[in-house]
């Protein structure tokens, strides 16, 4: 007799969601049900805990405290803006976490998600906010690598 697989639901009421989704394997008169909801979650958690090749992200503040030097603003392989941070042995790419930056008294730039840098009129921007933002960085500081940890996103190791 061939093995047949059907989905069984824990409750019959059509207005309530099923309590547990289980797959029942019927072969003749014998039936065995495997409750996937709890066992599958436990197996997946154990399997993910022992995967060795996952890259660990570091924070920029931690790397600078360990003596890592920050390079100039550049683009990564994905086209995202960021900095290469390294100490000679290990290098990390830290993503830019800034939406816009001041250029001078009249201009500012905005960074798009695709990696483009767009020029914006600073007077219009500051007028909409009610004045200049003291926490917004200058583009020349970002390009030189003089950044605050709040302006830097996650840092991933370079290969």
Question: What does this protein look like?
Answer:
The protein has 159 residues and is of the alpha+beta class. 21% of the residues lie in helices and 36% in strands. The chain has helices spanning 36-49, 60-65, 122-129, 139-144, and strands at 4-9, 21-27, 30-35, 69-75, 81-86, 91-96, 100-102, 107-111, 117-121, 152-157. The strands form three sheets. It has a four-stranded antiparallel β-sheet. It has a three-stranded antiparallel β-sheet with strand order 1-2-3. Strands 7-8-9 form a three-stranded antiparallel β-sheet. A hairpin with a 4-residue loop joins strand 5 (81-86) and strand 6 (91-96). It starts with a strand and ends with a strand. The relative contact order is 0.14. Mean pLDDT is 76; it is low at 25-37.
Show unreliable segments. 25-37
SS summary, helix count = 4
Give average pLDDT, whole number.
76
Strand content: 35-45%
**Fraction in helix:** 10-25%
- Structural class assignment: alpha+beta
- Record the strand order, biggest sheet: 4-5-6-10
**Shape, please?**
globular
Order of helices and strands: EEEHHEEEEEEHHE
Tell me the radius of gyration. Answer: 27 Å
The end-to-end distance, rounded to whole angstroms, is 54 Å
- Number of DSSP E strands: 10
Sheet with most strands: 4 strands, antiparallel
Please give a handful of descriptors for the protein shown.
159 residues, alpha+beta, 4-stranded antiparallel sheet, 3-stranded antiparallel sheet, 10 strands
Produce a short descriptive summary.
It contains four helices and ten strands. Helices cover 21% and strands 36% of the residues.
């Amino acid at each position: 007799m061939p093995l047949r697989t059907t989905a069984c639901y824990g409750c019959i009421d059509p207005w309530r969601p099923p309590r547990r989704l289980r797959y029942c394997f019927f072969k003749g008169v014998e039936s065995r049900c495997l409750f996937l909801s709890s066992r599958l979650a436990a197996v997946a958690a154990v399997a993910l805990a022992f995967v060795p090749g996952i890259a660990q992200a570091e924070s920029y503040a931690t790397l600078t405290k360990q003596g890592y030097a920050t390079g100039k603003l550049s683009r990564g392989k994905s086209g995202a803006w960021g900095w290469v941070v390294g100490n000679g042995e290990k290098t990390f790419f830290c993503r830019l976490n800034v939406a816009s930056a001041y250029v001078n008294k009249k201009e500012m730039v905005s960074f798009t998600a695709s990696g483009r840098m767009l020029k914006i009129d600073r007077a219009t921007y500051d007028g909409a906010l009610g004045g200049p933002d003291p926490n917004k960085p200058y583009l020349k500081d970002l390009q030189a690598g003089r950044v605050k940890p709040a302006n830097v996103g996650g840092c991933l190791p370079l290969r």
